[in-house]
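User: Sequence in, structure out. Go.
Assistant: Echoing your sequence, followed by the structure tokens.
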Amino acid sequence: MADAPQPSLIPALGVVVAGLALAVTGVLPWAGLTAEFGMLHTDFTYAVHGTEDGAGWFVVGSGLTASTLGILGMSRGWLFTGLAILPGAVAAFSLAMFLTDPHTLASRLSFGISGVLNVHPTILYGWFAALLASIVVAGFACAALIRRRPAQS
């Protein structure tokens, strides 16, 4: 009688690491308002961190949930790892809602005085890191589901 193959821990470990990275990205700067002063050749950026908006807390919670599901996937089975696709999707949706939030539309307007002042909104590195981490979480979760699909004869 042959032993059943040991489940691969790589997708579960990937979900844990990417989930923790996703949780950390919630506290990074996501957006800002940049003012460039042409005469002084300097610029100033006011940064908004993810947790200053409700979407950032959803990203932190999604990252911690994905990590928990990855840990459960290591000990209990591949299905828990596969369920981590849900927090990854919630995080990606929260990131999209952050960009389309109508309450902050007024603060995202651009204006400028030619050669003197240019003010414009910017998306900072934390938002892109959160998007990448949510995609990686979903990718590892999909890998866990695909690897465990029953073989058809």
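User: And one key feature?
Assistant: The first helix runs from residue 10 to 25.
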